[in-house]
Amino acid sequence: MNTPVQPAAHPKATAIFVCSLGALAGLMFGLDIGVISGAQQFIQKDFGISDSVLEHIVSWMMLGAAAGAVGAGWMSAALGRKKSLLFGSLLFAVASVWCGMAPDVANLLIARLVLGVSIGVLSFTAPMYLAEIAPENVRGAMVSLYQLMITIGIVLAYLSNAAFSYTGNWRWMLGIIAIPGILFFFGVFVLPDSPRWLMMRGRKEEATRVLLKLRGNPEQVKKEEADIAEQLKIPQRGWHMFLENKNFRRSVGLGVVLQIVQQLTGMNVVMYYAPRIFQGMGYNTESQLWFTVIVGLTNVLATFIAIGLVDRWGRKPILYTGFVVMALGLGIVGTMMHLGIHGHGEQIFTVAMLLMFIVGFAMSAGPLIWILCSEVQPIKGRDFGIACSTFTNWIANFVVGATFLTLLNSIGDAATFWLYGSLNVVFLLITIWLVPETKGVTLEQIEHKLMEGKKLRDIGR
Ligand code: BGC
Fold first, then answer.
1. pLDDT above 70 (res 226)
2. Ligand 1 mean position, distance from CA 92 (Å)
3. What is this structure's pTM?
4. Do 346 and 336 form a contact (C-beta atoms < 8 A)?
5. Whose CA is nearest to atom 3 of ligand 1?
6. Which residue, among 27, 23, 454, has the nearest Cα to 247 in the 3D structure?
7. H/E stretch holding 333
8. Domain annotation for the chain: domains and CATH numbers
9. What backbone torsions phi and psi does residue 201 show, to the nearest 5 degrees?
């Protein structure tokens, strides 16, 4: 019955391949975020809709994603990580085509909602899959790789938007991202299922086979299996623990606050509405979309700063720097809008300040909030805790997307940017007050201190 299992010839290369392929889910996330920015003005013209209907078209995707993230918790446990990724990518492709072909506003709204569900599923499952499959020493880097893929997805969508802007064909903009979705779907077929999930289901032999492929060394595989078995003895009892344990409620609360903070920095205002912002600075449609590409590229490049610094500087100093840079960037953009942007020089300066804001986000809150959210939850409640914070990320994202144009139209563009700028100052204070420094601390130590009742900011170093 027991077929002998052989270690793979190149385990390291296999692990890198599997992780990189899994991280491509981040690309779908990014495409999804980026695509709407370039399409919206053409959609608005075509359907003759108001700003408030447009806000719904932008933001229903996030509502769908919040629902998808909750459903994915169940799906990834019952059907497995791989099947969830397959489902998510197929739905992504179908919904993208539907968006592109939508005959009317109602169809477009529902298609965006379904697209959101697919991204919710992928954004919950993929980081979890990566953490379960990656060798321990590169686990943090994997979360950053995932964030990098998000930013690359955004910039690819911006590029395609800019290319289609000459014909104004929003249907192609929205539909074409089905192609990477389908490619990802076929890619997921060759991925192994997560060894941790296989063991959870009592499929130990398959788990061994996967681990041997990824790690090569049978001794290491045995040890890892023993570790997983040990962890699985601890039942996931998130909801009960949430009701019973005050300290767990604190870590769940921290994850929720961190994700609200990430979204209220205002990053997605720029991600979704950059062309509109450039329009406000006096640029024509094509320039708007090319400047938006530059925003996307800056986002990709500055993510490398975080990757390089996160394990050297630590989490808190990077967040402090990021919030200061973001507050300054948005504050100055608001001031320029208040004073009126007249010559070419002033336009370029304002664009530079907006890019400075992007750098501030990408080097800090972008990747770091996701990292912190996965670090602060105790093992028994990890799935529940991460589901709560991921859900919050999408709800807060929804609120930001659904209110930006209304804010612009009611309080004006300068005040809108000042509002987000000052929130970043508040977040600096929240970080000082609430966020622990988790650099170089094991997850067990963090959990121990949390459960001892230490202040949240002291559960790290
Ligand atoms: C955020 C997204 C955002 C993206 C931008 C992610 O960390 O969760 O909401 O659009 O970064 O790069």
1. yes
2. 18
3. 0.88
4. yes
5. 268
6. 454
7. helix 315-339
8. 11-458 (1.20.1250.20)
9. -90, 5
